[in-house]
Amino acid sequence: MVMILNRDRIELATETKFILVIFFVITLTTKFPFYLEIINIVLVSILFLCINNRKRAIKLILSFAILSIIPNLPIYKIDTMQVLATWSLIIRRLLIPFNLGYYFLYSTKVSSLLASMERIRIPKIIRIPFLVMFRYTPIIKNEFKHISEAMKLRGIGKNMVFSNPLLYMEYLIIPILFSATNIGEDLSQAAFSKGLSIDGKKYRCSLILFSYLDILAILYIFLLLYIVRG
Question: How far is residue 153's CA from residue 69's CA, in Å, rounded to a whole number?
Fold first, then answer.
């Protein structure tokens, strides 16, 4: 596995991140004790702090706190509170998988991901499209941000969503579609120029190691399984 040690942040190995995401997605319908939910939230927040994303860590903790308080609020209207309590439990259950997925996207480099996928023998027909999509998502997000800023400069604000929603969607979606097409072509050409489709032995600059953090993460997964089944 790969552990990337920078001067500013410490990251888990790419394979370990992927295992964590898959584990919490699979156990999405499993009911963990409340104290385990708190521990999971704290640990994921620590992961964000390790990659210098304090804002995301604070948002995660505050979101969990608010969603935990809502079901315990005084009941004034039974129907309303039942709906709020149900949705708060559902969203609270989704916090860990979604934030781990965000952590995976935010902290993983394409080179490390490629080296890890080749190491575990993932077929090329799956590997290349996945890598293209992996780079595609954050780029589209940035394009959406730039288009929104350009719309604001031209006086097209979010108030148009209510006054003229069709025109607002036209101004927003058409540039995104053009950008998406160009980005897809650029990423495909970049993957081709890097030789991803070429067979044969390749040499990567990433150091393959299994760190103590990865061991702790895997042991924690087994501990969760033991507690839930026990």
Answer: 40
Let me know: does 195 contact 202? Beta carbons within 8 Å: yes
Q: Where are the domains of the chain?
A: 14-109+211-229, 112-194
pLDDT in tens, 5-26: 444 456 788 888 888 999 999 8
First and final C-alpha spacing in the chain: 30
Token output for 155: 């006086």
- Which letter does DSSP use for residue 156 in this model? -
Pinpoint the alpha helices (H) of the chain. Answer: 14-26, 34-50, 54-69, 78-107, 110-119, 124-153, 160-163, 165-193, 212-229
Give the CA distances from residue 145 to residues 21, 98, 105, 125, 152, in Å, rounded to whole numbers and listed in that order: 27, 21, 18, 32, 11
Rounded to an integer, what distance in angstroms lies between the CA atom of residue 154 and that of residue 60? 34
The pair of three-digit structure tokens given for residue 83, joined into one six-digit string: 């709906």
CA-nearest of 75, 71, 1 to 37 is 71
Neighbours of 196 (CB within 10 A): 17
Q: Give me the phi and psi of 108, to 5 degrees please.
A: -95, 130
124's tokens: 């090329």
* pTM, rounded to two decimals: 0.71
Asked if 92 contacts 31 with a C-beta cutoff of 8 angstroms, the reply is no
DSSP type of residue 10: B
Quick check: helix, strand or coil at residue 208? strand
Examine the pLDDT at 213 and tell me if it is beyond 90: no
